[in-house]
Amino acid sequence: MKKLKDPSLRIQLLKHTKCDIMRSLCVLPKTQHDLSSFMVDVWFQTETMLCFSVNGVFKEVEGTSQDSVRAFTRTFITTPVSSYSLCIVNDDLFVKDANPKETQSTFSIPVFTPSCSSWPTLCQKQQEMGQTFSMQSGMNLQWSQK
User: How far is Cα 94 from Cα 55, in angstroms, rounded to an integer?
Assistant: First the structure.
């Protein structure tokens, strides 16, 4: 979108309604995500807004780029609908070819499973952010604090 010079084409390619967004997602190639690569970063939070990004890697499992490993960042701007649900106000997806560092441990079986004592201790502010994110997003607390 950034490289397009024609403003009318940019507007035409932008998706606004739920149906338009779903149709555009359905034509994307099938993928397999490496869940161990996922990282969630909450970068802004107030009582009326929660902004966070999800980073990770995936590979395409069909099409011309089959088995190509890609990295993604998906950024969400949300507002609370109730105490347990969020409304996505904006959703931005950025996909690129994964770099060697991102691909070196993807889709492999982990050799080491860390115990609770090997996880770093979170400071009070990080724990509070994790709890707030867990309550607002509905994500389980353990995953919210990773």
Answer: 10
Summary count for the chain: helices (H), strands (E): 5, 5
Q: Does 2 reside within a domain? A: no
The CATH number of the domain where 21 resides is what? 3.10.450.50
Domain that holds residue 81: 7-109+118-144
Overall domain count for the chain? 1
| Parallel, antiparallel or unpaired: strands 31-33 and 39-45 | unpaired
pLDDT for 44-80, tens place per residue?
Answer: 999 999 999 999 999 988 878 787 899 999 999 999 9
Query: Is there a contact between 50 and 42 (Cβ–Cβ < 8 Å)?
Result: yes
Which pTM was predicted? 0.64
Report yes or no on 1 lying in a domain.
Answer: no
In a domain? residue 26: yes
Task: Round to whole Å and give the CA distance between 100 and 97.
Answer: 10
- Region of 141 (left: φ > 0; alpha: ψ -120 to 50; beta: rest) is alpha
Task: Please check whether residue 134 is in contact with residue 141, taking contact to mean a CB–CB distance below 8 angstroms.
Answer: yes
